[in-house]
Amino acid sequence: MTMDCDFLIVGGGVAGLSAAAELADLGSVLLTEAEAVFARHASGRSAALYEPNYGRPPVVALSLASGPSFQALPGVLSPRGMLLVARADQARAFDRDVADMDLTPVPVEQARARLPILNPATVAHAAIADHAWDIDTDLFLRTCQRRARAAGARLMTRAAVTALSRTARGWQADTAQGSITARVVVNAAGPWADAVAGLAGLAPLGIRPLRRSMARIPAPAGQDPARWPMVFGCGESWYMKPDAGALIVSPADEDPAEPHDAWPDDMVLAEGLARYQEMVTEPVTRLIAAWAGLRSFAPDRVPVLGPDPADPAFVWCAGQGGYGFQTAPAAARLLADLVAGRAPALDPATVAALTPGRLR
Question: What is the pLDDT of residue 270?
């Protein structure tokens, strides 16, 4: 069986699903996901915070441009806020983080009003911000799927792409569910993005998967964390985020890994939990669960969005790192603008900073 489409999107995480929602207005879309469900890997294991000042300038531009889309979807964003904490010997790194993330330094006692378990014996510096919101990732992904399907897109699971070959019209792809012909291939394959480029006979861009581990722990007895902020150790040495009555703690690790279904390293997780526990008064007594995901970065830690310079019918949507959800709406619109030949809404300098050609 051969299926035909205008746009073949390889990858069913947040990058691929948001691109499907945008591209479906421009032509027929077929999205293939290798797993049995969408968002099986990094997109399903995200801490999911919308903090538009987080990241390098092109990432910040994408995040800010995504804000109106999130705000137009009732229930996707909910207030969370941020708290940065540091020891006395981390003053210089603390000052850098305050400047980079547009935070407001506050006395430790004021920070304890927001996070009652903060340890005044170890926390010497604190800063806060309200410009951070939880993202309901499930709602956002379902919204993308509904929008794509309503415009005629076909979204397939268990359909790993095993071969790509150039044709006069565009591409032919072999998958576990048959052959697909397409005018344009959109590479939204996350950690596997360079491998997909290799199937197409194109040079890799140096997309590197980095492991990020997470632990879910019980909230301290008698405490309701619902209104607590997300907390960062200075230099992003760890973070904690309230989640459904419990706490998610991460060592913020970035260990190089091959593309795979990631799992946490117990020692790395223990080190992160120790860094968290140093700054709070309540001990970690047990884990509810632990997991890991792969955050994929280009060499300059900026997403790669747009046509490959060697073949404009192969479009990259990769390297989102830890910014995939908070940049998804604007990234998908940019892809649609570029594919349609429209002038992007983003400024030309940002568009240039995101192009695959910068890495060749």
Answer: 95
